[in-house]
Amino acid sequence: MTPEMTGQAWLRLRQTTGITDPAAWLTTVTSRLTLDAATTAERRRVDYVGPWLPDVVVLPGTERTDSTGDAVVGAGLVDLALVRLLHTLAPVDRAIVVLHDVAGVPHDEIARITDTTPAAARKRHSRARRALREAPATAHDAGLAGRLATALRAGDLSALIAALSEDVVLWTDSGGATRAARRPVSGADKVARFLAGIIDRFGMPALSVETGYGAVVIRAVSPDMVRLVVLESSGGRVTGIQIQQNPAKQHEIRDHRN
Q: Which ranges carry the RNA polymerase sigma factor 70 region 4 type domain (predicted)?
């Protein structure tokens, strides 16, 4: 549920009479608006060029040393690995998970919102939760990002492979706006050589480890583009690499205090 959808629901509430339970009405309308928006976005994503990844937000004045391990702003509120996985679900299943697990809406109410039966809502929720059960976690420790950045700077392929899990997957989201791999790259050796190949071909980017909203972000700045890299991890190794190089999905909050 986005602030935009909530605002639309409030506007409709002000224009509607005879509502006996405003809270329930707002929940239903906001949820349906959000579901409609998700369905529309899903149709657009069919024509999306290459993999789809979440937007990345970088916070001001947060460049870190490679060894720092501070907490990440918003780490308990958003997980970009989970967001990526949520968007592999059907829009209705995604809405059911958010309504039940985040908003605490009971299955009977979800059934009414999604025009289904309570039994069907429970079944879809259970199926979606199973799909998310093995969800990876976004790396919130800058140390892992720092080790990866150090290995890249040094051109140390062995150290790079050692930081990756055997089944690591790399996705690049360009939205067709920049050069990018159109398909995911899988496996530690292939991912390491893919990253090394980019550097060999286009040169070493300026790398910095920074704080994003809900993630540690490696900023890779090249003459032709900026890449914002988010890591997924398990057991101290990188299990997923999200490379966001679509300019429309890169955001930086400016510090206006100075």
A: 81-132
**Averaged pLDDT of the chain:** 81
pTM over 0.85: no
CA 93 to the chain's CA centroid: 17
Helix (H, G, I), strand (E, B) or coil at 3: helix
Residue written as tokens 């990188």?
Answer: 238
For β-strands 215-221 and 226-234, DSSP reports them as antiparallel
From CA 35, how far away is CA 95, in angstroms rounded? 6
Question: Taking the chain, what is the end-to-end CA distance rounded to the nearest angstrom?
Answer: 34
Whether the per-residue pLDDT at 47 is higher than 90: the answer is no
Neighbours of 244 (CB within 10 A): 25
Cα atoms in the 13 Å half-sphere on the side-chain side of 99: 32
Burial class (CB in 10 A: 0-12, 13-18, 19+), 133: exposed
CATH class of the domain defined by 140-252: alpha beta
**Interior/surface letters 111-131, b for 16+ CB within 10 angstroms, e for the rest:** bbbbebeeebbbebbeebeee
- The amino acid at residue 172 is T
Distance between CA atoms of 189 and 166, rounded to whole angstroms? 8
Distance CA 78, CA 187 (A): 27
188: confidence class by pLDDT, cuts 50, 70, 90? very high
